[in-house]
Amino acid sequence: xxxxxxxxxxxxxxxxxxxxxxxxxxKRWRLVVVLLVLAAIxxxxxKDEGGLLALxxxxxVLAASGFALLLAMLRPVxxxxxxxxxxxxxxxxxxxxxxxxxxxxxxxxxxxxxxLIGLTLLVRPEWPPFVRALDTAVRPAATPEARRRQxxxxxxxxxxxxxxxxLALLLPPGDSLEARGGWAAYxxxxxxxxxxxxxxxxxxxYSRSIVRIPVAVLMVLAGVRLAMSAGLLPGDDxxxxxxxxxxxxxxxxxxxxxxxxxxxxxxxxxADLASLQRAIELEQPVMPRVITDGASAFGxxxxxxxxxALLLAMVLSANPGAATGAIADxxxxxxPGPPPGDFASLDDxxxxxxxxxxxxxxxxxxxxxxxxxxxxxxAGSSLAIRDWEKQPVDPGELPAxxxxxxxxxxxCYTITTSCTDGDAECAQAIAPPxxxxxxxxGTVYVRVIHRGAPRPDRSPNAFDDVKPYGSRVQTIVQxxxxxxxxxxxxxxxxxxxxxxxxxxxxAVTIGFSDTEPLFVGFSQHxxxxxxxxxxxxxxxxxxxxVAVAEGSQANYRFPNPSQAPDWTGCANLPxxxxxxxxxxxxIRDRTSADxxxxxxxxxxxxxxxxxxxxxxxxxWAPYSRTELQTLHKTHPLGDDASGPATPSTxxxxxxxxxxxxxxxxxxxxxx
Length: 671
Description:
Strand content: 15-25%
Oligomer: single chain
Number of helices: 18
Helix content: 40-55%
Number of strands: 19
Distance between the termini: 81 Å
Shape: elongated
Radius of gyration: 33 Å
């Protein structure tokens, strides 16, 4: 054995060894280079037919086979991806939250799989460094100087905890915890802040070498700039964009890859200790190991706490609680009993009055149903009408706007009061009611139709034989409610989500057989939900209790502190596919039983498509606008949608059975 062998053995121990997955499969580097060149050429030639995917697959195979040079090149990328581990558990829980409305077995499996994957793949590899960091933090100090340093670290930790709790209290904005969306919203905000802290700590842990520090700094700056663009922080007028900062971070990552690769090559060729030290000097730690390791360890703990807060928030938001409000206890709302003894002999007007819903509102609700004539009269000279060519129409002709040219889609007129603010006088908010008040004013428009009866208004046949009720449905009664304005605001993690437009039409539909009620349909946003008659709650024997959401006027079966709205209809998606978004973002409709509304005896208007206002082929607002209002900025969410149309032009009027039971934007309500 030569004298150089022990020295070379020591150098072999000191050289960097990228982690491999088992013994190397490909040992000839020239063969590997040839394979890479061929794969790169194929990727360029077939980049539109999956060539880049094939190149990525080849790189993955080479990495898995233990090709050391490729592993050395991927080491900075792997370290950066490892930094994002705390986000993985939270993402898995959010995906699992999509099963909250699913059968309990599926919920159980989703929760188990999410935590199994999260703890095994994301947390377990981080546990040994965390144990070491925790041991360093709690181990009794041996010297007075060490004790003072330990106390400073604990004070810094306590200050950080207080800062996180206070910062979470500012997101979303509001004057009280209730205005911010309650405990669920606070826990959502806390989870977001903790995830931000977690990533910041993990980036500190990533910044072990001089070549990684610029990457981490640029990524932090890109995150701050992105928060400015979102309006979470002031300073959106800064000329440097988040995209530019992220691109610079990418360039820095490429530099780190190049430095690591070149250092690895030089280290493998080093013949003595001095050469080896020069080869790896750029990879040497520039901060104390206790800081970088501690930051990484506590970053993963912050991510786990954020995941727990997120899980609790989603559970709270999915279980909003019981009815509240000044008249909640006195409602005497209960399951329906048998129909009245004279049910079979009720005429249309008696049937419509007997089953008229009782609407429940919260103390923050600013609108209740009104008559269209009153709305038009109060609007006065601010009321404007335009036709399909955007030409002005005399408002005095409103009752006669019952036809559109053959080639023009219905509705073809647009009505507006040019009102954009729910707090403005033009929004025609009602006088604030007293808590517990049983208000009786306004108007309800009632439509009663029978299977096989003549249709003098020429409306389409409403009685499609759609399951589950099919031909059993012999009579349909629709209660249409007109509101002067729609201004819905929901606290979310990043601020407030607002959707608003002039005027609003909502409906409650009840289907009857020859002998009894069968179902109730509640309109909500761009769709709705239905319940069998036995699952609703009634008062005064036959009147369905309907909880009306603050601002949106969406109808729900019973008041709860918050309801998760189904936005699928507005997004043209299948029903209930936005459950995950609602639970993960705390988007809510808020309902309560602070006061009730019923039409007076003279407030019932029995109508068909020939009667005003059902004959008006118009939209009652030129837009429906959705915005995200953050602390420092307002973001339009998509283009303006169409305003609410006259009921007789809506699908729920023309095809009530197929609309409610035919899938699409309606679904059966959950208990």
